[in-house]
Design a protein that fits this description.
Elements: E1 7-14, E2 17-24, E3 27-31, E4 33-35, E5 37-38, H1 48-52, E6 60-63, H2 65-79, H3 83-87, E7 92-95, H4 99-103, E8 109-111, E9 116-119, E10 126-129, H5 131-141, E11 145-147, H6 159-186, H7 193-201, H8 208-212, H9 222-225, E12 230-235, H10 241-254, E13 258-261, H11 270-280, E14 290-292, H12 298-306, E15 311-313, H13 316-322, E16 325-328, E17 331-334, H14 354-358, H15 361-369, H16 373-399, H17 403-414
Helix pairs in contact: 2-5, 5-6, 6-10, 10-11, 12-16, 12-17, 13-16, 15-16, 16-17
Amino acid sequence: MTDHTIDFEVQAREGEARAGILTTRRGPIETPVFMPVGTAGTVKGIRFEELESPELDARIILGNTYHLWLRPGIEVIRACGGLHKFIGWERAMLTDSGGFQVWSLGALRKITEEGTEFRSHIDGASCFLSPEISIEIQATLGAEIAMAFDECAPGEATYEEARRSMELTLRWAKRSREAFERLQRYGTARGSERVREALSGSGLEVDPLATASGSVTTPAQVNNLRHRQALFGIVQGASHLDLRRESLERTVEIGFAGYAIGGLSVGEEKPVMLEVIEEIAPRMPPDNPRYLMGVGTPEDLIEAVARGIDMFDCVMPTRNGRNGQAFTSRGRLNIKNARYAEDQLPLDEECKCSVCRRHTRAFLRHLYQSGEMLASILLTHHNLAFFLDTMRRVRQAIRSGQFAKFRREYTEQLSSGLG
């Protein structure tokens, strides 16, 4: 990148595992790091005060471009001074590009060279998202890290399907980078009439004078859009290792501040996912952060760290918590099970979170069976505490040269069962 909008330093290594510091304008983030997912500007089921507390101490969360664009709309967020001010979160954020959400709509979307047409899941309205639109939306949101717009091929995609998707992602990556550079320098992106219409319809105002010169942003918006951001590229190619290697090489040629592996945990078998990570992560530029998108379980995090990954996000801690499932040091616990009706133990005897210090499995099951919202809140808190504490322990193990031992003991304990 032409400007150092983030700084990344690897400070310790053990095998492929790395521990480092990712510094943004909002402060340092120790890696490997797990990033809670805040789809609609909120991490479901937990207050920001809890995420910021010493117990959890989440230094970075995600925002979702697709969902925030559709509701409340970019014009609302811009009027409120950007996503940080709108939601009241002062720490770092990463926004995804919206590509995965659009891909997940399946038959409701149509992919072309220019971008993706789809029907809103909210009201069925016709929408259009492209690299230029995604980058402009993310600039308005103002997160410290933005993602290039990509197309995700399913895990079982044929070689031909995966290559077509990879080639399109690479062309979109180049357009994303070009739009990003224009926005960061001038507060303006240049796009087709179709792009300007789509942005106008989504609430991003279009100045007639700016439109005549190809700009989709008014001069008055320049200051709002010129938050210094870092842009990450995304490696695609489904389960085909040669396509993944080619995608990485050509994405690095375009040039990004960090690199992500996308399109995993979308239907492929677990060994296939790990094979892709093992093949690609060590080949990623050593001086840039490496991000594995949308993965995964605690076991997945440990195994991906062992293969060189620095950053993770996943909805599992919050989603599973709302559905009555707790992650523990001895595997997953389903609080709905009748066996916990009189169980006086905490969710996890080894966990030091406030939920485990105070509440029993019996009480948590009662809350869940009664439909009390507190059940989801407490289970979500515990799950996030468990994931974030796991990553703290991973960082400590790498820095002390004990990661191999930690990995072995952690995995053995997880597989030992709840008893």
